[in-house]
């Protein structure tokens, strides 16, 4: 199992990450599609080749083809949106917020899976990319759809752990050169 290989690659100084990785994926209360879509979208967003290489096959095996594509779409569209909306928010000139975005985001309206799942994946990617405006927007949509805070927190816990594992393993690879 690739998850076990990934956990065993985490160095002892980061053993908490190893334990957390096993916990957030192996003991998650999320339904399989939400869990593995979150894992895949976050593995992509982590920008860690090792993490993506190890987690993608298991995600693909646990997702329908439509959910697999939608999770990748969430990572792709949020890579763009997180930069755009974070930048607009960080600029001190509030007039940017009144301008039309002019960016295509059709996949958000028609992701090919349940809207709640896509929103959860988008929120998790936004956590990795650090876009407060997108986090607020996706959290509000999820809460209005009846998703509880525990489920939402589960998604950003997965994001936090996958990001940390990617950062750690990529640093170790560089240090080993």
UniProtKB/TrEMBL annotation:
Enzyme class, broadest EC rank: oxidoreductase
GO biological process terms on file: cell redox homeostasis; response to oxidative stress
SS bond partners: 131-134
Active-site annotation: 131 (proton donor), 134 (cysteine sulfenic acid (-soh) intermediate)
Record bears the keyword Nucleotide-binding: no
InterPro entries (alphabetical): AhpD, AhpD-like, AhpD_core, CMD-like
GO MF, any single term: disulfide oxidoreductase activity
Reactions it catalyzes: N(6)-[(R)-dihydrolipoyl]-L-lysyl-[lipoyl-carrier protein] + a hydroperoxide = N(6)-[(R)-lipoyl]-L-lysyl-[lipoyl-carrier protein] + an alcohol + H2O
EC annotation from Swiss-Prot or TrEMBL: 1.11.1.28
Annotated ranges, domain Carboxymuconolactone decarboxylase-like: 94-176
Matches recorded under Pfam families: CMD (PF02627)
Record keywords: Antioxidant, Disulfide bond, Oxidoreductase, Peroxidase, Redox-active center
Subunit structure: Homotrimer.
Function per UniProt: Antioxidant protein with alkyl hydroperoxidase activity. Required for the reduction of the AhpC active site cysteine residues and for the regeneration of the AhpC enzyme activity.
Protein family according to the UniProt entry: Belongs to the AhpD family.
Protein name: Alkyl hydroperoxide reductase AhpD
Species whose genome carries this gene: Streptomyces jeddahensis
Gene symbol of the encoding locus: ahpD
């Amino acid at each position: 199992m690739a998850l076990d290989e990934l956990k065993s690659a985490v160095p002892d100084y980061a053993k908490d990450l190893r334990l957390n990785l096993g916990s957030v994926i192996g003991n998650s209360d999320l339904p399989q599609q939400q869990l593995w879509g979150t894992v895949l979208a976050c593995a992509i967003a982590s920008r860690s080749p090792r993490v993506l290489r190890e987690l993608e096959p298991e995600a693909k095996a646990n997702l329908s083809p439509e959910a697999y594509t939608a999770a990748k779409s969430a990572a792709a569209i949020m890579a763009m949106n997180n930069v755009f909306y974070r930048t607009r928010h960080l600029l001190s000139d509030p007039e940017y917020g009144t301008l039309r975005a002019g960016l295509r985001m059709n996949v958000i309206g028609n992701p090919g899976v349940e809207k709640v799942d896509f929103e959860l994946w988008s929120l998790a990617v936004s956590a990795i990319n650090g876009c407060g405006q997108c986090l607020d927007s996706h959290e509000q949509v999820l809460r209005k759809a009846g998703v509880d805070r525990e489920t939402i927190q589960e998604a950003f816990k997965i994001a936090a752990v996958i990001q940390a594992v990617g950062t750690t393993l990529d640093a170790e690879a560089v240090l080993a050169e």
